[in-house]
Amino acid sequence: MVIFEQAANQCLLSLMSATALLKVAVFFITWAALWLPLAIPMAVLLKWRPSQPLTTEQKLPLLAVLYLIAPLIVWGATQVDGVSFSDYGLDSQLTLLKSLGLGWGLGLTSLILIFVGEWILGWIEWQGANWHRLATIWLPILVLGLWIGIVEELVFRGVLVNQLQQDYSPWIAAAISSTLFALLHLIWERQDTLPQLPGLWLMGMVLVLARWVDNGSLGLSWGLHASWIWSLTCLQDAKLISYTGKCPTWITGWKENPLAGVAGILCLLVVGILLLLILLIPIAPNPGF
Q: What is the model's pLDDT at position 288?
């Protein structure tokens, strides 16, 4: 027992002095090591094979287990770094909820502008007969969006950005964390995700900007992320819009995925430019929080 404790302490000391990239690698390896023993039997029960695309019914249970153990992995990171969750941008202050609301409003507004613009141009049609479908799905999707949003923000804009800034400049750290954020989406749906990689990377950068603007808090980025998940999932699941085919898919989005088209990129750029302008105001915080 004493030998085990000494070995564990030695590993902890070695990890504390390791490079940022090694710490990030250990973080994800540990997360996967805890998830796979649960995910493999679950995948067997769900009759899913890695060579097959995931259905929504198969993906949600696997995703739920992965994200439910995420706080444990983040807690482990706090022990290695000698910090708390608040250092990663998550605290219990009322300002977090205020920023969450502001981010939600900004994210929702950005999508409204894009889709209303597409409607005016005749690229989409609103399916008014389907609005009643929102009554049964908006709340579960809201809970799902908030949970996915906070977990991904805590991991990618919290832990990863903090770790990477130990060895790299804020912008390089943001670029690396956004690259990992985009690439790890390939785990679920490679064929459909590949065209979305540039959009996912840009989304990651915008969300890092949101954390910088919010003085290191995750409230603003959480609100943006959750509102985009909620809005797009509601539109898709309730079938509230249909594409007219009057515009190339490289503009509206391949397979009706906005992140895989110019429209989604434009939405992210508008939000990113707005956040960047706020950041450049003299009273704005330094990115190296």
A: 55
Note whether 225 and 218 are within 8 A (CB): no
Instruction: Specify the DSSP element, H or E, that contains 221.
Output: helix 219-237
Q: In this predicted structure, what is the pLDDT of residue 280?
A: 84
pLDDT, tens only, 99-114:
999 999 999 999 999 9
Tokens of 250: 């490289």
H or E segment and range at residue 139: helix 134-152
Which residue has 């509230």 as its token pair? Answer: 240
* Interatomic CA distance for residues 193 and 154, integer angstroms: 22
Q: Cα separations (Å) of 105 from 27, 45, 159, 203, 261?
A: 32, 40, 25, 17, 23
Q: Decide: helix, strand or coil at residue 124.
A: strand
> Measured in whole angstroms, how far is the alpha carbon of residue 14 from the centre of its chain?
30
Distance (Å, whole) CA 155 – CA 75: 11
Q: Compute the half-sphere exposure of residue 269: CA atoms within 13 Å on the CB side of its CA.
A: 8
Q: Which residues is 242 bridged to in the sheet?
A: 125
Report pTM: 0.90
- Alpha-carbon span 107 to 94, nearest angstrom: 20
Structure tokens at 210: 């949101």
Concatenating the DSSP letter of every residue in 136-201 gives HHHHHHHHHHHHHHHHHIIIIIIIIHHHHTTTS-HHHHHHHHHHHHHHGGGGT-HHHHGGGHHHHH
Residue 50 phi/psi, 5° resolution?
-55, -25
Burial class (CB in 10 A: 0-12, 13-18, 19+), 255: exposed
Contact (Cβ atoms closer than 8 angstroms) between residue 81 and residue 12: no
What was the pLDDT predicted at 60?
84
Q: Which residue has the higher pLDDT, 57 or 259?
A: 259
H or E element: which one contains 67? helix 56-68
Phi/psi for 93 (5° steps) reads -75, 155
